Amino acid sequence: MDSTHADVAVVGGGIIGSCTAFYLARSGADVLVLDPAPGTGASAGNAGMLVPSQSVPFANPATVGAWLGALARRDSFVTLRRPLSPGLVPWIAGSLFEARPWRASRTTRLLYHLARKSLRLYEELTEAEGIDLQLRATGSLRVFRSTAAFRRQHRMVRTLAKLGAECELLGPRALREAEPQLHPDLAGAIGFPHDRSLDPARATLAIADAARAYGARFRAETVVGARRANGRVHSVVTDRGTVTADWFVIAAGAASSRVGRFFGARLPVRPGYGVSVTYPADRPLLRHSVMLEEAHIVINSGPRSVRLTTGMEFGGTAGGEPPAGAGQRLDAAARSFVPTLPSRDTAGAPWRGGRPMTPSGIPRVGRIGENVIAATGHGTLGMTLGPVTGTLVSSLVTR
Ligand SMILES: Cc1cc2nc3c(=O)[nH]c(=O)nc-3n(C[C@H](O)[C@H](O)[C@H](O)COP(=O)(O)OP(=O)(O)OC[C@H]3O[C@@H](n4cnc5c(N)ncnc54)[C@H](O)[C@@H]3O)c2cc1C
Questions:
Q1: What is the domain count for the chain?
Q2: Ligand 1 binding pocket mutation candidate from 20, 35, 138, 238 (most atoms within 8 A of CB)
Q3: Is 328 helix (H, G, I), strand (E, B) or coil?
Q4: I need a surface site. Which of 194, 199, 370, 388 has the fewest CB within 10 A?
Q5: Is the pLDDT of residue 374 over 90?
Q6: Which range of residues forms the domain containing residue 363?
Q7: pLDDT value at position 1?
Q8: At what angle do helices 382-398 and 15-26 cross, to 10 degrees?
């Protein structure tokens, strides 16, 4: 069994662990990231949108109806799968509590400002650090089939506009001009020109490589326990040995609640599973990242692929397969909006990943013990919030 020392041991090498390792290593810390398969969790198969415009948290008044639908097993974008984990019911109650309008507005403001800052940091990583992130200035469109649903969202536009988000309303004709590949029979869209997009798996690995270039080490090890004495954690136990460190960071995504228990901490993080399907392409199919609002589908089309994502499923087993037929259903629903999607036969196998969800939608970033820092719970916005989280954790350690 190996024994190693580092200034900071980071548990988890997704976008959050990689950004954390990058900023810590850049500030001169000796960083060791422990992850059996870095960059293969939620950070791999997500929609790759960097979206301050999506700062309205999952816990908001509109989700209450979706939860009721899930509980009654009606058609709803939120679904429950058995077995329900022991803490899930109180977690759902907490999320409904956080969905009250004023709390959701407060969370929106916080997430929006963090997301804007993170986008600036992504640009700095590209321009000043030369990291090849292939950021795309796609902007994003929230597209509506029904005029009533489109009108209902005007309030959301006003809220985001008050926060400083630039957004525009596109009627049916303007939408056809903006996105000729979309079905012509749509009610309109809300456009957010400053949103960005990227290939999430590629970007996560590029940031991990940049962290390595500053001296961070990555080891393919699973953390299975932690040893504490006098109120401090002095080491973690992995499947290969022991790692001692001055600081420990929990960045284990949807597994953070389980990993937190090793450190004696309770982290209210539950996986909210989503599914994606990716098609090869030789040019971008759409000019923008597109959210099909009524279908709860996101389409991100890059220069080499088109990816569809959907779903918010709670419960079930960690690492389980996507529900049977998920790929076909997703393809059929998206095709009714974008008839020119690449052929279904070319699609890769459906992917399933867990978003690390907190009841409020506010990530848990901060000290949770004498020398333990949580950097988790980024929910639907983890790709967007990676760099800002990395700078926050780095300043907690170095100051
Ligand atoms: C379908 C879908 C679409 C999404 N779309 C977007 C989007 O467009 N924009 C956006 O901003 N966000 C999006 N998200 C959310 C985003 O993907 C997540 O918030 C983000 O990837 C979380 O990053 P992470 O590093 O915390 O977790 P992960 O990427 O899951 O990384 C956690 C890592 O911890 C490791 N780990 C776990 N347990 C242990 C252990 N015991 N020891 C060592 N390592 C361990 C795992 O191997 C994993 O690599 C989406 C998510 C999904 C599912």
A1: 1
A2: 35
A3: helix
A4: 370
A5: yes
A6: 2-398
A7: 58
A8: 40
Residue 306 neighbours by CB under 8 Å, 6+ apart = 278, 279, 281, 285, 286, 299, 300, 341, 342
From 11, 16, 19, 46, give the residue whose CB has the most ligand 1 atoms within 8 Å, as the site to mutate.
46
Strand partners, 352: 275
Q: What is the mean pLDDT of residues 118-122?
A: 98
Cα 223 to Cα 202: distance, rounded to the nearest angstrom = 25
Q: Domain with 350 in it: what CATH number?
A: 3.50.50.60
Query: Is residue 378 in contact with ligand 1, taking CB distance under 6 Å?
Result: yes
Mean pLDDT over 370-375 rounds to: 97
Residue-level length of the chain: 399
Tokens 């509506």 belong to: 144
Per-residue pLDDT band at 343 (split at 50, 70, 90): very high
Tell whether the model's pLDDT for residue 159 goes beyond 90.
no
Torsions phi, psi for 250 (to 5 deg): -95, 110
- For residue 274, give the amino acid letter: G
With beta carbons less than 8 A apart as the criterion, state whether 383 and 43 touch: yes
> Quick check: 320 pLDDT over 80?
no
H helix runs in 46-85, sequence order: 61-71
Question: Which pLDDT does position 151 carry in this prediction?
Answer: 83
Lowest mean pLDDT among 70-84, 85-99, 305-319, 347-361: 70-84
Specify the amino acid at residue 18: S
**Residue 241 corresponds to which tokens in the numbers above?**
């040995």
Amino acid code (one letter) for 52: P
- Which whole number is the average pLDDT over 170-199? 96
Q: Is pLDDT above 90 for 284?
A: yes
Please give the number of the atom of ligand 1 that sits closest to the Cα of 375: 26
CB of 251 closer than 6 A to ligand 1? yes
